[in-house]
Amino acid sequence: MKHRLALARALLNEPSLLFLDEPTRSLDPLAAIGFRKALHELARQKGCTIFLVTHNLNEAIQLCDRIGVMVQGQLRVVTTPESLRRLVELREELSLSVGINSAEAAPEPGIEGEPWEKLLQELSEGEERGIGSRKGEPSFGGAEQLSVAPSIPPKVGKGGQETRSLANLLRAFHKALLFLRRDFLIQLSYRFAFILQLFGILFSTASFYFIAKLFGSATAPYLSNYGGDYFSFVLIGIAFVGYQGVALHSFSDAIRTGQVTGTLEAMLVTPTRLSTLLLSSSLWNFVLTSLRVVIYLLMGIFPFGANLRQANVLAALVILGLSIPAFSALGILSASFIMVFKRGDPINFLISSLSVLLGGVYYPVAVLPQWLQILARILPITYSLEAMRRALLLGDSLITLMGEIAALIAFAAVLWPLSLLAFHYAVRQAKQDGSLAQY
Q1: Which CATH number covers residue 30?
Q2: Global pTM?
Q3: Residue 156: inside a domain, yes or no?
Q4: Do the beta carbons of residue 201 and residue 294 sit within 8 Å?
Q5: Sign, Cα dihedral of 240, 246, 247, 248
Q6: What is the rounded CA–CA span in Å between residue 326 and residue 381?
Q7: What single-letter DSSP state applies at residue 391?
Q8: For residue 299, how many other CB atoms are within 10 A of its CB?
Q9: Distance between alpha carbon 311 and the CA centroid of its chain, in Å?
Q10: φ/ψ (deg, to 5) at 161
């Protein structure tokens, strides 16, 4: 009854296209048969197209006019239900190969122990000969021309490998642009929220301006290495700490959203690399944060007179480019916890709290006790803000900032592979537990 009500709700607006994901997975066999019959009749009456995703071959044959077979996330063949049904009947039954670790590779369905590749090859040759002609079986023609992707790519030379690498890079770039476009359109539909963010930036900047007026020259001894102006000092801190916040939250939020909306499992079975999915899902947040930083700096300079006249913009951009990978590695570690434990993320909590306390966001690290200054040096935000302030407030060159640059490179070089390894392990663990779709 619950499935029928869900179907009725989906048909209320008379859609022309109906998407169904494993519609009978939780039903007993009799209920599944009844639901398929109701679905078929309603779809025919309403005249809508059904796009069905299922692991049940008989269900696909019963409901669909065209069937696409996917193996390990790649579409291998597109054919008619009749062609596939006849071949399966000739081979007696469709069985699953056993003994394969689901975390390492998806199980390959086979027919009497034969892998999918033989089935797909026979289907692809259906036009040239009857599929059943092998082993003396009766032949039947009429199979439509099929599109089959080879399972093992042919060997290519060095030039071919370079071409393939370039093609993969272009595909990854295209996918990133699609993610960026999607998130931009979502943001565009919430214009009022962006206006509220502008007011929030204005109020925050104004608040720290008046706090700086309250302190007056009392902070000058602690800020002599940064030009002596507290407002300019704290403006850079509150503006650029947003990059760490985005890095820590974007990846875990993307995973959490995928878990809640049910899209995570679908994304992870595609041929797209995990690193591409992670980076693309957070790309818009970094673009939006960059816009916020520019607005922070412009509001600080023009209404409130922040002194950035000596700014070395090139050095600041280099520091930013090195900081984002270091921050993002911590964010991917955070996403690994969300993937496995769903809630409760100690990395996000610890890094966010320690960065505000020790990273020099609101006050120089030099005011801290010596033992806390040592602890502050294990945080990438400490080096990032130190170098950013010296580049924007004092105009220091890249050579002068080489110590902070080396530290940020070291953080990225160590944390980035560790974070990706942790995330791969988390995904494998979630696959083994069958908890990808749980939240």
Answers
A1: 3.40.50.300
A2: 0.65
A3: no
A4: no
A5: positive
A6: 9
A7: I
A8: 20
A9: 35
A10: -65, -40
